[in-house]
# Entry
Amino acid sequence: MLALDRPCRRPAVPAVYSFKEKRSEFIAALFPAATGDEARAALESVRKEHHGAAHNCPAWRVGYPDVEEFCSDDGEPGGTAGRPIFGALQKSGLFNSILVVTRYFGGVKLGVRGLIDAYGAAAAGVIARATVETVLPFKELELRCGYEQLAALSRAVKNAGIAENRLRAAYGADAALTLLVSPTLEKRLRALLDGYETRMLLAAPPRWSENYVLAAES
# Structure
């Protein structure tokens, strides 16, 4: 488990990079993915797009601060594809990402060293071209209140340290506030919402997310 007070980097949008090595074509695709299920879905989409390819070799690091890590050679000799792809992800410091390198075999064998170098170069190439953002972990907190209590409740959570850009409101039968709470403020917010005066402002019990979500640093 990683430190919750540390920012991390993730791809903001998908990226693609390709090159040829001894007539084999290597196509590297990098995707944002927050969970293992999202990573597997991205891998399946690549497999469908490149169903005629010899290999679709994935590596991913998803979740934060508890990280799920995986890589596969997808039929290439052991350690020649998945590990160099995963190593490029690790070296870059990227989280919540999946990187798949597709290989269309060109008829010339590259050998173990050649495969390691080619898959590593493909992974490093797409990472170098990716748009990357720095993000921080937060817990989502949903609060509901009557419209007559909205101003007082908003003021209370802002006084507790919640920035304006970490709070959004939705309006229905009552008002719903969704807050992004940093780990350093979570204890303070829980204590505040357990207080008698603040509880009187709420229309329903506070709802905390079980897992952390990542949001842009600024």
The first helix runs from residue 36 to 49. The mean pLDDT is 93.
